[in-house]
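Readers of this paper often ask what the protein records in our data store actually look like. An entry from our holdings is shown next, in its original layout:
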Amino acid sequence: MDITLLRSFSTTRRIKTGTWSQYQPVFELSKSPCMDACPCSTDIPKIFDLLLKGKDREAAQELSMSNPLAPITGRICPAFCEASCNRREFDQPVGIREIERFLGDLFLEEKLFPEKRGYLKGRVAVVGSGPAGLTASWFMALHGFEVHVYEELDHPGGVLYWGVPDFRLDKRVLKRCIERWEEFGVVFHTGRKVTPDELQEISDCDFVIIASGLTKPKRLSIPGIEHTISGVDFLKDYNLGRFSKFPDRAVVIGGGNVAVDAARVLAKSGAKVVLCCVEDRENMPAIPEEVQEALEDGVVLKPSTGVVAIEPSSSGLTLKLSKVRVVDERDRVKEVEFVGEPWETEASLVVAALGQEKEFEWEGLVCGDLKEGPSTVAQAVASAKDLVCELLHINLQGDLDRKDKVVSFNDLNLFYFEKRSRFSVRDVASACEEASRCFSCGYCNLCANCWIFCPDVSVVINWDEAPPSVDVDHCKGCGICAVECPRAVISMRRKY
């Protein structure tokens, strides 16, 4: 045989080895569990990627498009994202809320304004200036509308102003948020309560969005309930400076966030506080982190405990309590049966935080708690954002280009990660340190493992744009890239 026939006198790229396999790698971005758990669908891996590339301002801008109230949720959100973070199964979840707080504060301090998404003309009225009202007004202003927000109290912010204690949310943060809204063109009309009958007065608007929340306290048929103050009224009196004298002994009834906030306010004032709720500790509606902090404040928790009756006494009020078992639940009200022998306790003040309901029946464009029921700030933000998207037929976050699949811990290649403790986020350097702990589940951050390990040099990378692509003419479908991908971005698919 003539050996020259076996020689190659040109590049081997002319040999189309891509025909040798029925499989080829496919680069697809999937949902990270943190993004899936976030009510606002915040694209956390993308934001962290921008931050780690030194684009902290761009990261803050990107965050504002999914959640303009990040300075607030970064402080008081239950952190659904961290509870679902894959890293929690490796060492500790990433401090997403702390980074959100940092970027939210950066958004305020640098006075960043997102690029106008449209220049629509018209006038919008928003009833209520709580988290849903603020979110709706921000995004409507972002699209060019003249926005007027109507608030019953003399200060905008709704429940963020009158319902959240200072030790959870510094009111200076809320004040700076309101100032940003005003700089953005939103007009606030305070001391102006709007009822359904008065909607005609603002009917010259193109849209009227109702975000008045749930402000009417529920009253249950407990004998002597008239001797109590509702949780909503107590927090409002406290936050507005109307509560002048704190009791030495107090009982708070309820297991939700309002009850826990009220109990913590009283405990921090020096009162001996008992918090009783019909739920057991594991099923309390309140944020677990807040319950734990209430215990650290000195609140005595009495779970699975109901109130039989409340009666006036020489020392104030006498409560007859009993262990209970939850037997049913209707309209967010639990039905219980008393078990065991009742006992009595004394209190100077009893706060009944038994839930809230709507004050009026509204029709039209509603969002926030008025639509979703009692919820968190993040959920109220998401509800208002969804309403604006539906109203204007837009997608505020653009094309997320994500599969519905949520990346699990077992999908990741952990060989490329080392265990590291969480960083306390104080500045951009520490924010980057903490963001670098993120696995970036389902999101390509151009680590280039696929490019490095490909034996056929068939991975094509544009270093300014992720994810890479595949040279199908030369990829043999060996699957090394899929195995070595740390983030579950690559999967092997049949060609035919």
Notes: The chain has four domains: 3-28+445-494, 33-113+398-435, 123-215+358-392, 216-357. Residues 196 and 362 are 6 Å apart (CA to CA). The chain has 17 helices and 19 strands.
